[in-house]
Amino acid sequence: MSLAQNLTKISSLLPASVKLVAVSKTQLVSTIQEAYQLGQRRFGENKVQELVSKHPLLPTDIEWHFIGHLQSNKVKLIIPFVSMIHSIDSLKLLIQVNQEAAKAGRVIDCLLEIHIASEESKFGLDFSDAKSLVESDTYRSMKNIILRGVMGMATFTDDITIVRNEFRTLHSCFESIKKDHFPTDERFSEISMGMSDDFNVAVEEGSTIVRIGTALFGSRIYQ
Ligand SMILES: *Cc1c(COP(=O)(O)O)cnc(C)c1O
């Protein structure tokens, strides 16, 4: 199927309230342009260098979402233009984002990445770490970031029951943090979960942002 057909199909499967981040990692600038022509405005990248080199070649009204593991020393490279960082996995990283955003005169939307998968390798905060982070004075004093919600990645498995349970766990982490720390803050409202193979389950479990690559662009070619 063509990119246009994939985009139409995926969009038709998503409730209007769910935001689609087109994960364009490894995709050519011309492919991103094609998706842009079709009306897609949110794109996600997981490597700082790749994002920094693609960004100046593309329209300025693209919303760039950073979805990969982010090293503190690379934060400053994306701060001038990034729209949302999904992968806040430590207080140290959030401090760096806040500092660099202050220098750039920006306020950056961030999500707390919560570790929900059974695999050891995946990044993310444990629920208790996420709680401690939002309870810390350091976080409370930050003026240049806004916590918008949580993000998570399910275990890489065909077993949909496992995936569904992990999404449920993420949803309840979100609800718990919301209730205790952001009860009246409407900005804390996002649950970023669901990729090509599991976005329908994620949506059923309350996702507000899905991050979709291969189902949109076809399989990735790594150079
Ligand atoms: C690559 C990636 C995706 C998209 O994965 P697909 O299976 O291609 O849809 C989503 N989220 C993150 C964090 C990724 O790195």
Notes on the protein architecture:
With 223 residues, the chain is α/β, with parallel strands linked by helices. 40% of the residues lie in helices and 17% in strands. It has helices at residues 3-13, 29-37, 48-54, 75-78, 91-104, 127-135, 137-140, 160-181, 199-204, 214-217, and strands at 19-23, 42-45, 63-66, 84-88, 108-113, 145-151, 190-192, 209-212. An eight-stranded parallel β-sheet has the order 7-6-5-4-3-2-1-8. Helix 5 (91-104) links the parallel strand 4 (84-88) and strand 5. The longest helix is centred in the last third of the chain and has 22 residues, at 160-181. The structure holds pyridoxal-5'-phosphate. Pyridoxal-5'-phosphate is lined by residues 23, 25, 46, 67-68, 153, 195-197, 211-215.
Which features does this protein show?
binds pyridoxal-5'-phosphate; alpha/beta; 8-stranded parallel beta sheet; 223 residues
Gist?
Helix content is about 40%, strand content about 15%. It is of the alpha/beta class and about 220 residues long.
The backbone outline, from C-alpha atoms, is globular
Which small molecules are bound? pyridoxal-5'-phosphate
Q: How many beta-strand runs?
A: 8
Helix content: 40-55%
Which ranges are low-confidence, i.e. pLDDT below 50, for 5 or more consecutive residues?
Answer: none
Strand composition percent: 15-25%
Structural class from helices and strands? alpha/beta
